[in-house]
Amino acid sequence: MKTSVAPSESADLTPILDALAKRVGKAGRAEAQAFAAAFYRRMDAEEFASRSAAGWAELAADMLEFARNRKRGKASVRLFNPADSAHTVLQIVNDDMPFLVDSVTMALAEAGIGVHVLGHPVIRLQRDKAGKLLAVGEGEPESLMHLEIDRQPHAAIAPLKARITQVLGDVRAIVSDWQHMRSKMQGIADDLSTRRLPVNEAGRHEAQEFLRWAADDHFTFFGYREYRIEKRGKDEVLAAVPGSGLGLLRGEDDSKPRPLKSLAAHYMPQSGSVDALILTKTNARSTIHRPGYMDYIGVLEFDAKGRAVAEQRFLGLYTSSAYTRRPWDIPLARERYAYVTEESGLDPNS
C-alpha cells in the first residue's frame, strides 16, 4: 500500500487470499480474491510483513464492500476512526483520472495532516447503470485510494471529508473540460490573425505563438471564462459572460463586476505584443496538482479605437517542462531575453 518505488521482492499474496476465502465464504470467494489480487498487486515482501495476512484480508474485504456501489461521475469518500488503529482512515473510490493523489495529499498537507500509509491501485470494475458492482477485472478503470492519516478528533471528520470531496470535484471539473479549454486556446491563437490588436505584425505573431506554445503541454488548464466590458451606471465594469465558464470557472460568476478603472494596468494599451495578453499570477492558490498561486493568461479584444472591450481568461499552472525550457525558445520571453542580452552585451546563446 505504500507509494515508495524502491525495488523490492514482490509479496506472495497466497496467505491473504486464503484468509480472505475463510472470511467471505464460498459464494463471494472468487470475486473477493480477484479484488484482493488486484488491490495488492504492487505490494512487496517488506510491506506484507507490516501486518498479518488476516489484517490485509480484512482491509481488502472492507474496501470491496465500500466500492460495491458507486455511480459513475461521482467520487465515494469515507473518513473514519478505526477502534484498533492510532490513525484515521480515508478511503476514496473514483473514476480514474490525473491529479488525484497529488491533490488529495496536497489538501492534507495544507491542513497540517500527516500521511502514514497511502495505497492507490487502479482496478477495472464493471457496473450496471445504477452503479452496482458486477465484475472485478472487467469494465472501466477506477481509482481506489486508502490512506491512513494522523488521528483526527470527531469534530474534524465532517469538515475534512467536505474539503476532500470539494478537491475531488475540482479535479473532475478540470479533467472533464481540459480538452475543451485547450481547444479554446488554440482557436483563440488562430483568431488573433484577424482581430484588431494595438500591436504590429511581429507582436501579433509572438502573441499567437505564445498561446500555441502554452497549449502544447506547457500549461495545465484549470479554468476558463469570458468577460465583457459593460456600462453600469456611470462606470465601466468587467462582467462575466453567462455560460462561458469551464473547469474551475464553471457555472455563474457570483462575484461583483470589477470597475474597469481598478484594472487600468491591464486594460490601457501600451506598446509591444504583451498588449494583447495578460500574463500574471492570481491571488488564489491552487487546490489541484501542486501548491502555489495559479497562473493567469488573459487574451484581450479591442475596438477600432484600441480600447479593450473583452477578455478570454485562462487559469492554471505552467508545467514543469515550461520552467526547464531555454528563454530563447519561449515566445514573448525570447523578445525580452534578446533585448536584455543586447543591452548588456552578453552572448544570447550562452
Properties at a glance:
single chain; 350 residues; alpha+beta; 6-stranded antiparallel β-sheet; 10 helices; 36% helix
Give the topology.
Blueprint: H1 14-24, H2 29-39, H3 45-48, H4 53-67, E1 76-80, E2 87-95, H5 100-110, E3 115-119, E4 122-127, E5 133-136, E6 140-150, H6 154-191, H7 201-215, E7 219-232, E8 235-240, E9 246-247, E10 258-259, H8 264-267, E11 277-285, E12 293-302, E13 308-318, H9 320-324, H10 333-344
Helix pairs in contact: 1-2, 1-4, 2-4, 5-6, 6-7
Share of residues in strands: 25-35%
The separation of the N and C termini measures 47 Å
Helix content: 25-40%
Largest sheet: 7 strands, antiparallel
Helices and strands, in order, run as: HHHHEEHEEEEHHEEEEHEEEHH
Structure write-up:
The protein is of the alpha+beta class and 350 residues long. Helices cover 36% and strands 27% of the residues. It has ten helices and 13 strands. The chain has helices at 14-24, 29-39, 45-48, 53-67, 100-110, 154-191, 201-215, 264-267, 320-324, 333-344; strands spanning 76-80, 87-95, 115-119, 122-127, 133-136, 140-150, 219-232, 235-240, 246-247, 258-259, 277-285, 293-302, 308-318. The strands form two sheets. Strands 7, 8, 9, 10, 11, 12 and 13 form a seven-stranded antiparallel sheet that branches. Strands 1, 2, 3, 4, 5 and 6 form a six-stranded antiparallel sheet that branches. A hairpin with a 6-residue loop joins strand 1 (76-80) and strand 2. Helix 1 runs antiparallel to helix 2 (29-39). It is elongated, with a radius of gyration of 26 Å. The model is unreliable at 2-7 and 269-274 (pLDDT under 50).
